[in-house]
Design a protein that fits this description.
This protein has 256 residues and is mainly alpha-helical. The protein has 8 helices and no strands. It starts with 7 loop residues before the first helix and ends with a helix.
Amino acid sequence: MFSEVLSAETIRKIGQGGLCYDMEEVSSLPVLKWEEVMTQSRSGNVREVTGCHVYVDYERLQKELIDVKRELNTTQNNFDSVTRELSTTQTNLDSVTRELNTTQTNLDSVTRELNTTQTNLDSVTKELNTIQTNLDSVSTQLNQTLDELKKIRRCDNITRWDILFTSPFYNNFLTSELIEQLKSSWDILKNFVGVNMTDTVVEHFRRHDVKNSGCDLDISDVYKMLGELIADEMLITDGILQHFIENHNHEESCGD
C-alpha cells in the first residue's frame, strides 16, 4: 500500500519487474511494505513462490547485441592489425639481430686482425730499435775508425812499405805490372818537387788518382782541381802544370 497514487510509468516498471522489482525507487511512498506482510503469521492455503518474473526487452537487447558485436569486430580487427604489426616487428627484430650478430662477428675478426697487426708492429718496432742501436754503434765505431785512420796517416811509424797494405797489393800476388804502377805513381811526384805536401795536395792525389782519370773528366773538372790547389795558396810551378798536362789532359787521354 502506498500513500499516494503511483504514476503509470512507475506502475509499468513495477509490473515488468514483478517480485524482483527494486522498490527503492518508491521507498518513501509505501504505508505498508511487502516485507511487513511477509513477517505476519499465515493462515489458509498459502504457497511460497521463488524466483522473479523478469520482463525482457528483446528489441533493446538485440540492439545492444549488435553494438557489442560491432565493437567486438572492431576489437578483433584492431587485434589482427596489432598482431600483423607485431609479426612484422618480430621479423624486423630477427633481421636486425642477425645483422648485429654478423657485425659482431666481423668486429671480432677485425679486432683479432688489429691485435695481430699491433703485435707485428711491436715486433717490427723492436727490430727497428735494435737495428738503430746497431747502426748507432757501427756509426760510432766508423767515426772512431776514421779518427784513428786520420791519426795513423800522420803517425811517425808509417813507412813507405805501408802502401803494400792497400789494394791491389794486400793479399794479392805481386806482379811486374803492379811494380810498374807503383813506380809510375812515385814518378808523378817529380813534378811536385819543392811543393809543400799539405792536406790539399794529398787529398788531390787520393781523389784524382791518375790511373782512374781519363775520359770521364772534362775541362771544368780540371779547373776545379787547379782551384783547390790555388785556394791552398800553392805556387803553381812548371812541374805542377806539366803534371796536369800529362795526367789530366782530356784531349790527350781520350784522343780527341
